[in-house]
Records
---
Amino acid sequence: MHGKEDKMKYGEMSQQGNDFNNEFSDWKEECGVFGIYAPNLDVARYTYFGLYALQHRGQESAGIAVADGEKIMIHKGMGLVSQIFGRKTLDGLQGKIAVGHVRYSTTGASMLMNAQPILVNYSRGMMALAHNGNLVNTRQLRYELEEGGAIFQSTIDSEVIASLIARTGKQKIEEGLMEAIKHIKGAYALVIATENKLVAMRDPHGWRPLCLGKVDGGYVVSSESCAFDTIGAELIREVKPGEIIVIDDEGLKSIQTPVPDHPSLCVFEFVYFARPDSTIDGQNVQLAREAMGRRLAQEHPTDIDLVIPVPDSGIPAALGFSQESGVPLSMALIKNRYVGRTFIQPEQKMRERAVSVKLNPIRALVEGKRVALVDDSIVRGTTSKKIVDMFRRAGAKEVHFYVSSPPVAYPCFYGIDTSARSELIASSHSVEETCKAIGADGLYYLSTEGMVAAINEVPSNHFCLACFDGHYPVEIPRLGHPQKLGIEETRAKVDTR
Ligand code: SF4
């Protein structure tokens, strides 16, 4: 277990690391949640390994809360799961129910007080709550609650949800939750432990994924099914949009709350966020990404020598692109896997070359060749430009850039930390202008229709596509996110489908 000082150091280090990593990724993963009800198992260790599998969804902080029937114990800290939990810590977390969380901050700063799960002592007992997603009316709710005397210990929207549940005064947690969700708008996949119950819920739009499984006489819930594989659990099904699952010593109970006409599952789970070995709504993520690559090749027939993925996220689409086009796949862009969270920020004059620390093309493979780089998305365009520059310096004859999703022109308000609208290159540049800005010989995006069709197990009208088309399934209140520019325009395009 780390002392407070150590935790703060991790926080500082992770901030440095993330600054550096931001050079390469404009998408910041959201959060991952995990829950288990299993009286016969070491629930803390199962949660630890579940969180390990979900680490890609957030690396700033992590926490595990364990309920033993009478009380809830919790441990959380800044950094990676492996940095926060040791054997002694896990040995001290004994019980029958656990909830866990890995966090990337989408609302609230990166600091220990904002780490989850949140532990609340209220008139009906204790609850530990872990949340993936982002509410869009947090400011308004928080203002109203504070006016009514509520005190908050963190700056995250998840504490607002816990406060709303506590204030309902309902005896049963599921009844308090049903009451609380009447007030909240936005994205939430929740796992909550009380002393005796595990409760899971997905918001009525189903933005963020949440699945249900079983393990050795118990039940598990997780943001992604890859965590079930890690702990030897079996996937039963998705938690449905608007569904509340309650698990206690009487078994499993499902409560369906009202839902809109169709769900709004975040399409970027398939494009980038989710692990390739996860299955969401019956669709394996790797297969969807390969299909996106095949469709990209169909939409943009090409005359080139090599298909080169931008690692790691471009690999599945590049594989599909190569299969469909018949052009050989070459792993000619090498990623340094040891550039981690504790990397020291390069000095200013090194910063322009900072991307070379992480990525480097193999000159012997690309010299004199017409290459097609394949990546999952372009957000700000700064990393894409640096990669194109590298290939030019390595002697490539032509450098074409293929993207396995459409241009990202609008910010996300539902749990993904994208740039402000003004920083999204597609918000102000045509495809031709973006191509010029990144210095490529050609730039080719997958169409929205092609992307959605590639995820063939999910109906095409079941997705949120707001960052591509600006049609936000739930209105973004004016006070919600003033830091993301272009808010007026965003409000004008609220979805009326
Ligand atoms: S706006 Fe984009 S990133 Fe955000 S939930 Fe919708 S599809 Fe996902």
Note: Residues 4-21 form the longest helix (18 residues).
---
Amino acid sequence: MKNFYITTPIYYINAEPTVGSACTTVAADVVARMHRLLGENVFYLTGTDEHGEKVAETAKNAGISPQDWCDQMAPKFIEAWKLLDISNDFFIRTTDSRHKKVVAEVLQKIYDQGDVYQDQYEGWYCVGCESFKTEKELVDNHCPLHPPEKTVKKSEKNWFFRLSKYVPEIIKLIESENNYLFPESKKSEVLAKLKAGVTDVSLSREKVSWGIPLPWDNSQTAYVWFDALINYYSATRFLEEKTDFWPADLHLLGKEILWFHAVIWQAMLLSAKIELPKKVYSHDFYTIDNQKMSKSLGNTIPPKEMVEIFGVDASRYLIARSFPNNGDVDIGIGRFKEKYNADLANNFGNLVSRVGKLGDGIDLEKNKLELSDKYVDLVNQLKIDEAVNFIFETYIDKSNNLLNEVTPWKLEAGDPKRIEVLKICAKNVVMAAYHLLPILPKSCQVITDQFDGKIRPMESGLFPRIK
Ligand SMILES: [Zn+2]
């Protein structure tokens, strides 16, 4: 059996889940579920990133210990993903002692390679990003992604990782047939940055106690990124699954953390002599009603709010359908309602209900269900929107057009023409539902059950119109 290992980033635990984190999680779930339909042995990993200065600071402001803070926040992510019917096989927390052990082992390997040295660091640091910034990355002297007060001047003694040593090899890999980075636009972006020159990065923190101590120097903790990235590997070590899922087939992540995954993570693995992941995919962002999504603007949409309006399956559908694979995508509750009514209520839902009612009792031959290669290919490329369009065009729109053309409701119940057209449409409905199972798991299961061997009417509308 073929293995397939897919990951989302582990989400930073200082804030609650939003439609932004749901975007990556739902897209990964669609890919994972599709690979299960293909008969593969899938391992889908998500989790929370719980160390670092920002978490310590947030916990302090809340008047509790960082561990208590994490223990309160992690369940919010677990619940949000349960609510969205996410089929992850494990949820990793970086405060898990088993993870910490693997982090220490990997860092020790990097140290043993001679890829770590001590140096004084001085420069600008954004507490929001938990990363040092070069002068070039600053806008008006601060990190453009966070409020000005988050950018601070730092001077400390750190352990550094020889990132620069691995840059030629990484460039060669990205430019080769074995390129792991997609889509194309992100590949060029990373290559340009690599070729512009890369300096070594600090691997530890002197004054951050909320982290994993370095195995060779207990006075310093691992820089949160060096701890977090290792989660993808550590879970495949400490879980002791029957299968060794490493290397990952696909790391899915947003563009703000592309550099860490496309370059730093690869260099760490090269240094530790661990196999590299096969693919890294970086997506763009959602904007909400044409504004950047942000906590301070208060315009984020919690998954819970979406589910209250649209239900679980339709929320997944709307999130996946807007997946930003080629530039930022503007979303909003108003837009979602339009899309829901157009696609699910008026189109797919209406077709299922018409065919069920008109064809009640008609026998259907069993067909072998198989996913179309084109659909599989589009989903693997994260072109989920195009994949859904393809299914609508191939099965759903075609059937609606056929019904409107033949108007079987005007024909007698036993008319062979009526039976024939309803059989064709029912077959298309089943094919559409089968392909859309990874996106609409519960509703599409109901549809395929209802049309199994015989057409039966749906008891209630699957996707009632929303005002
Ligand atoms: Zn920042």
Note: The longest strand covers residues 116-126.
---
Amino acid sequence: MNEPFFALRVSRKHQLTPDIVLIDLVHPEGLDLPVFTPGAHITVQTPKGLHRSYSLCGQPKDQQKWQIAVKRENAGRGGSCSMFDDLLEGDQLQTHPWLNLFELKDQAKFFIFVAGGIGITPIMSMMRHLLSMGKNNFQLYYCTRDSLSTAFLEQLNAPEMVDHVKIHHDHGDLSQALDLWPLFENPNGSDIYCCGPAGLMDSVRDMTGHWPSESVHFESFGISKNTSNENKSFDIILNSSGKRIHVFPDCSILDALRSNGETVSSSCESGTCGSCRTGLISGEAEHRDYVLLDDEKDTHIMVCVSRALTTELVLDL
Ligand code: FES
């Protein structure tokens, strides 16, 4: 994904909850936007210049506007705060063309959607798509802290949607988390789509190990795999020059390369877009991305998020 950014105009920005804003994006000259597929996302350049990916949550066939919802993550790396605080109606937002790493399989017999918090966004586009096709073979389980922090309440309570939605509040208490086991105990031919915090996705992953793997789908922006692993320092060696670069625990390989004047394509910087794919010549990587297939992991690494299990990695740079 190395297409250039293009500008969309922020036509509306309004709050869904105290810390979630819905942002409408239109073509600056009023032209039609491309139709997207449900589950797609865009990568934008925030007002502070950071690249962040957000799922498109509107109706995929709507060519008048694209919609994204952004949750202000106070403990994040600044991208969501910049979108929440600095982006204003009328501003231009630099945007990549949409990309879909969370495709909805239209032909599924039944869809079970599991969303946590802001993870509702790709599911909204999926449900809107199904309803627009005259399909109502889906059920959403939407886990949030409380009603105040629940986005899209109005839309989810609309007559065409309400019978397909179960909202569960845990009030910030893990012991009150929704028990999903009765749902997943017996595989029933449905397709499962899950997006939300790492804990929720881990639970669904654990509970669906006996389901066909092609029926269970996860979206995971901004949540690197294995983030519970402590970051260690290591060296990278550039194969073409033999240059050795140290990667400190609080620094990504991508940032270490940049600091040393090396250029690698990047976009999402969260292991989801595929831009920073780099050849791995030797050493063992700790893969934290959502892009590489199993048979690519010995020979490639996504340098924005992944790290090393060995003391050094030789990269094809
Ligand atoms: S920059 Fe997107 S996967 Fe690395």
Note: The chain has three domains: 6-95, 111-219, 234-315.
